[in-house]
Amino acid sequence: MSLSLTDWIKTSGVSSEIGTVFELVAGCAIDIVDALRAAALAGDTASIQAVNVQGEEQKKLDVVANDIFLAKGRESGVLAAMVSEELEDIVVVEGSEGRLALIFDPLDGSSNLEVNGAVGSIFSVLDLGGAGPVTERDVLQSGRRQVAAGYVLYGPATLLVLTTGRGVTIFSLDEAAERFALVRDGLRIPEEAAEFSINASRRGKWYRPTADFIEACLAGTSGPFGKSYNMRWCAAMVADLHRILCRGGIFLYPEDEGTRDKGGRLRLLYEANPMSMIVEAAGGASSTGTQAILDVEPSGLHQRIGVIIGSKREVARATALYGKEG
């Protein structure tokens, strides 16, 4: 029998507090799986609830997933605060003696729901240290200070991917037993591959380095990289990066002319930082194009950023072009 998440936590050397957060996220994932299934049966996956703090359509399932995280977070006993993509302000956990913060995107890729596409949850864990009231400033930490990160991929199998910075471990949900079982430990991302992932509909807005990199990929064996690339795009960061983690490649959602005023499309604290921690722990790399994502000092809870992430050599090829800009 495969090692359960609970047993793995006992033997992996993670702290009891981090182990509690991992169990918390696993519990959220099980409840979200049930919610996704129920919504599909009711024909309610496309239902729009409102417009969220990001100015994006907020589906009913975004709210359901967010509420699940908040409820379990408040009950955990180890969290002092939470930050969600769906909420404008930090959530302080009243009466808790915990000093960890859980930063999360409860349902990444929710636009895929109405077509039964892959979606996920992404999370980051910060140590707030010390004591006293928690403020927004306390959670505005660079990605290097994350103590754990992970994601859940809701697909043909429900996968939980975890790291504390010392390797990457994958668990799969055994629905009959309602537990996550270890399926892969010590995941390493190939140093290079021949796949790229980008929203090509934004081509007319790309900066020159992005366009030059994609043109080089499409040039095939006669191009500067000397190999033929395939393109893949799932419209869910979790799904695209899980594929890249398993077989290599590069994911790009860089700043462009359409996102210049915001600094990019993806959010730093609960998308770019946790995924960068996971990818780097697996031997990959991540960058804005000019700076390592994990070195960026955040200026706000919902700060956006350009993202280039994946196999180390592929990221180096892309960022080398940014270095030539101008």
Largest sheet report: 8 strands, mixed
What best-fitting shape do the alpha-carbon axes yield?
Answer: globular
Q: Measure the end-to-end span.
A: 57 Å
Mean pLDDT: 94
Q: Strand percentage, roughly?
A: 25-35%
CATH A-level architecture of the largest domain: 2-Layer Sandwich
> How would you classify the helix and strand content by structural class?
alpha+beta
* Unreliable parts: none
Topology order in helix (H) and strand (E) letters: HHEEHEEEEHEEEEEHEHEEHEEEH
Tally the helices. 8
Q: Tell me roughly what share of residues is in helical segments.
A: 25-40%
- CATH C-level of the largest domain: Alpha Beta
**Total number of domains:** 2
Order of strands across the widest beta sheet? Answer: 4-3-5-6-7-8-9-10
- What is the CATH superfamily label of the largest domain? Fructose-1,6-Bisphosphatase, subunit A, domain 1
As for the CATH topology of the largest domain, it is Fructose-1,6-Bisphosphatase, Chain A, domain 1
Number of strands: 17
Radius of gyration: 19 Å
Keywords:
326 residues; alpha+beta; Fructose-1,6-Bisphosphatase, Chain A, domain 1; D-Maltodextrin-Binding Protein, domain 2; 2 domains; eight-stranded mixed sheet; five-stranded mixed sheet; globular; FBPase_N
